[in-house]
Amino acid sequence: MSKNSHFSVIIIGGGIVGTSIAYHLAQYGLRDILVIDKGNLPHNDGSTSHAPGVLGLSTGSPTLTSWATYSADLYTKMNYFQRVGGLDIALTAATEQELRRRHGIAQARGLPVRYITPQEAQELFPHINTDDANALLFHPQDGITHGPTICKNLAKSCADAVELRPNSPVAKLLVDGNRITGVETDAGETLSADRVVLATNIWGSILADQVGVTIPMLAAEHQYVITDPLPELAQETADVRMPNLRYFDYGIYVRQHQQAYGFGSYYHQSTMVKATDLGKTAIHPFTPADFEPAWELMQGQLPACKGAEFERAFNGMFGFTVDDRPILGETPDVRGLWFALGTWVTHAGGVGRTLAEWIINGTPDYDIHDFHINRFHAHQKANDYILKRSGTHYQQHLQIVHPKEAWGEPRNMRHSPYHDRMVEHGAVFDEFAGWEMAQWYEGNRPLVEIYTDKILQRDEWGSRHWSPICAAEHLATRENAGLFNINGLTRLAVNGAGATAFLDRMCANRIDKPVGSIVYTTLLNANGKIVADLIVVRRDEQNYLLITSTLHGQHDLAWLRLHQRPEDHVSITDASAYWSGLAVWGPKSSDILQSVTDTDLDSISYYQSQEIVIGEIKALALNMSFVGEQGFELHVEQEDGLALWDTLWEAGKDHGLVPCGSVSLDSLSKEKGYLIYGHDINGSHTPYEAGMGWAVKKKNRNFLGRDALIQQKQNGISKKRCTLVFDSADGFALGGEPVLKDGVCIGYVTSANSGYSIGRHIAYAYLPVEHAAKDTPVEIEYLGKLFSAKVAKDPLYK
Questions:
Q1: Is 222 a catalytic residue?
Q2: I need a surface site. Which of 148, 164, 323, 534 has the fewest CB within 10 A?
């Protein structure tokens, strides 16, 4: 291609992610694409050139697994993927249990996986010591690739559409208003573009900072060594033949390099490096003292390496975000500026395909709520938070982490106004979007004895980071009333003459209802998939309050702003800092609340709102419930939050009111069939598949996603969300487990909890429609054991 000065897309960063994006954009028919890099190509300065190329396909994330699986197929097509398999080795009972969990996850993701014997392991990897192995789990589809080779072959495959410019550092992003217009190079050359993609990974924040976008990610020094050629491998001619090894007990992985072995180690304290301190390349000097403990351990596991010298040893830089997920998408702050950061070789092929489709069609092909650049809260962009959380993810990368384990530092970043009252009641805290949220209250322990006969038991794994108090809070709410913290909910104010028309265009449910109405709705993308669910409260003719989740509120705000047009005549602001709140739910909630307000609560119909006075506190009262009991959400100014707690607590003393944590809130909602965004519904599901067609109103409306829903309604759905109830009290799940029918995996558990009111554990899953009928028997694999369950009809508790 001849050199141009204007391009349809400029991709900054020529590593495997940037090259994959360019290749897939070309596959969609786009031309005039520029890939520009500060270093050489295909051997650039980044981690692509030094990455060991180890691909482990199975993860807890369906999207990441899909990306990895697609990447392996793409790399095969690009003539460099060795499907040698991967072998997980458990040296302790705890890790053996973890392998059972991972076996289930792999099944749930549709990947073949099997346990093998020590003899089979030694046939696959002759030099492994299996004397101490408790379990060996083989992943046959895992393998090895080589980043620069893939980059070279991808670029060659789209050479007619893509120009490569190596050794051309970009000095500046060019912005006009809130839209990207191009880039300026170090040489002073101006290159214009319709879109710019930042794929510079660990250097990403340098250019992003110029336009006011914070990237909550740091580079970590990761140790990798390659031994000298070993006598035991002297006859080996294949570049790689033996499977990759993973030792979770040690935080170490191993791969073959023809006549040598390579070792990657997480068995050391994380060393995080800012983008501005990285220097030119992603390789830093080796630190032998950090590697010595790992090397001592691994010489016992691979005796052929005992006393071996290292042909090469270095600290390679890899990017770690604050939530261990890639950063993708377009920000509303700078339209046309796209991000593809924090992605490794394992997922680069799939990420490139998704981002290309997203750019071309306006909608990604996978659920990306966990990966969207707009997901981050302000506290996640603070330097101390970035340092500690990204460092934690490095250290945990090959460790056993319980799915319910509470976060470590930094903590106590955001407190509810009644935080001290929660402490007084013995709150056991976890962190949600920076807020300290009670999981349960130790002050409720006396309730355990009262409800002991109804508390379902759990195994040791399921009992971690849980307490029977959670069950007692659940049952006390059903019998009397519970006081729930809703302070952290995201509140968005949508105001203006065009507010009704704008929301009607964005929401699947009808919004134009009388003042005071509450509407539950979803926001959809063009494919009819669910990108958010929220409550819309009509305050007056031109003003609405949108109440959405604590975790996903920033994503939802950005989604609305990305679709806002100048002619909409609407303002969208985050009003969360103004509001606090509590919910009182349960059969005695009306008695409690009526005792402290002059408003006749019976005059507020279900799913209606009204401003009332509680004691001396002005509150927006919402007659709705997330637990399937009568009651109200009470939203007040932040400064009135403490007084609201005290007023309600005093009024509830004689009515059995108990403070309740997030775990009981979840179990109560499970019994009523209520869904959690990010687990039970996300960008993989439509409302019809989720059983939420009742919240879709298509008549005389033209909302985003409507056409796709009409098409699906005509064609029918292939999967359906189902509530599963275990047949026996010992059947259990935590989430992610495979659901099987006649020994074949047909779905996986999206979320699970205990139904203390019905005496059974509950799981949600999407199943093929032919297996979704009530009373259909299935099995759920939990830690290697199969438990029978049946499809049930919602709600379980009436």
A1: yes
A2: 323
